[in-house]
Amino acid sequence: MRAPSSGLRLLPPTFIAALCLFVASASALAGSGGVCFDTCSNTLRQPQFNDTQSYNGSLPSRSRLIPQCVSQLHIKSLYLCADLHCDLTHRVAGLSNVNHTCQAYMNTSLPPFEIVAGYSDEEIAGLRRLTKAEGSNSSTVLNEVVLPADAYYQIWFDSLESVEYTYGNHYRYGFYVIVFWFIVVAIGLGSRLISAIGNLQKQEWDSRKSSSILHWSALWLKRYITVPATFGYRCSQNLGWCTIPPRIQSLTIFTFVATNVFFCVHGYWIFSGHMYWPQKYHLVWRYVADRTGIISFANFPIIWLFGMRNNLLMWLTGWDFGTYNNFHRWVARVSTLQAVIHSVGYVVLVFDDGDWNYWMSYWHQMWWIEGWFATVGMCALLFASVFWMRRKQYELFLILHILLSILVLITMLG
């Protein structure tokens, strides 16, 4: 049997999307110097060291690089902090990255690490310790080498660890929802092979009045899992404005929904006093909004693949278009709900940071407008795809489906 050519064109984008999410998970983690070096950098970022002149130019990024690349007090403080808290590998990697930035944007290089070699343990112990109140205030002026206080260093370390852990899970779980369907397809392919081998062995050994274990396995799957209705006696039943698929499809859909729920609620590190989002509920909303947005986007290649009438997966598993169409609709429903939670989360965050005028200011930013068009488009697609619309107004359903899908695709990619 010849595989449909359109399916061959659909699989590579799905693999590419999964790979991109996997690569993105790595980029979401800490920098090359690890959490310890990033912690040292962040504890020293806000205070002003008075051994450099302020920058009066038009490039804000350059003003932030002056203390990092030029201030001897800042550099020595960073070197000592990294020496105290980081191992050699992370310290070298972090300083190498900073040095590359200084060379590229400030046309200067960091001094050698040996400039702090003369500090004795007693001198290091006697250095001023920067508190959270001082280190978080840009008006703090320092005229000496400092080190972050233990409590200040720890809260920054925990904050960065929380971000690394949580955002790492964001992208990992987004990758896993795609892997889920490849596992389902692999099971379908295995089931088809078992059924085919069992039928061949049944034909061969029918005269001997005995059957192989593969034949009985295939028969059991067909009798109790793949063929029966989820409820009642009809394989696929209409229920109001929806349909109830066969048992195997219902089990697969339930597992998929449960997996997505787990991925959306698990894998957060929440605590009060976070350096980026100090209030706990603010932190929860930010993490949940990002998690649901990433997983919703990760579900898109599957929605697209399962919605096509001809694809390689139908040929591999032997499942008909109706099966994949049921999967298509349920992945779309889950993805839409995740997109709504994502959008609601950011509305809460925006109003928490400001008033109505602040909310309206976001409507001048293209990414915000595109996000809302995508979410509203997905909701409209969901409502336009109910069973009654598909059955009674198919032409209207098809036109709306195409137009809204184009809108969602453009705004999501934008």
UniProtKB/TrEMBL annotation:
<dbReference type="GO" id="GO:0006826">
    <property type="term" value="P:iron ion transport"/>
</dbReference>
<protein>
    <submittedName>
        <fullName>Ferric reductase like transmembrane component</fullName>
    </submittedName>
</protein>
<feature type="signal peptide">
    <location>
        <begin position="1"/>
        <end position="28"/>
    </location>
</feature>
<keyword id="KW-0732">Signal</keyword>
<keyword id="KW-1133">Transmembrane helix</keyword>
<feature type="transmembrane region" description="Helical">
    <location>
        <begin position="173"/>
        <end position="194"/>
    </location>
</feature>
<keyword id="KW-0812">Transmembrane</keyword>
<keyword id="KW-0813">Transport</keyword>
<feature type="transmembrane region" description="Helical">
    <location>
        <begin position="396"/>
        <end position="413"/>
    </location>
</feature>
<feature type="transmembrane region" description="Helical">
    <location>
        <begin position="371"/>
        <end position="389"/>
    </location>
</feature>
<feature type="transmembrane region" description="Helical">
    <location>
        <begin position="291"/>
        <end position="309"/>
    </location>
</feature>
<dbReference type="InterPro" id="IPR051410">
    <property type="entry name" value="Ferric/Cupric_Reductase"/>
</dbReference>
<keyword id="KW-0406">Ion transport</keyword>
<keyword id="KW-0472">Membrane</keyword>
<feature type="transmembrane region" description="Helical">
    <location>
        <begin position="251"/>
        <end position="271"/>
    </location>
</feature>
<feature type="domain" description="Ferric oxidoreductase">
    <location>
        <begin position="292"/>
        <end position="411"/>
    </location>
</feature>
<dbReference type="Pfam" id="PF01794">
    <property type="entry name" value="Ferric_reduct"/>
</dbReference>
<dbReference type="GO" id="GO:0015677">
    <property type="term" value="P:copper ion import"/>
</dbReference>
<dbReference type="GO" id="GO:0006879">
    <property type="term" value="P:intracellular iron ion homeostasis"/>
</dbReference>
<dbReference type="GO" id="GO:0000293">
    <property type="term" value="F:ferric-chelate reductase activity"/>
</dbReference>
<dbReference type="GO" id="GO:0005886">
    <property type="term" value="C:plasma membrane"/>
</dbReference>
<dbReference type="InterPro" id="IPR013130">
    <property type="entry name" value="Fe3_Rdtase_TM_dom"/>
</dbReference>
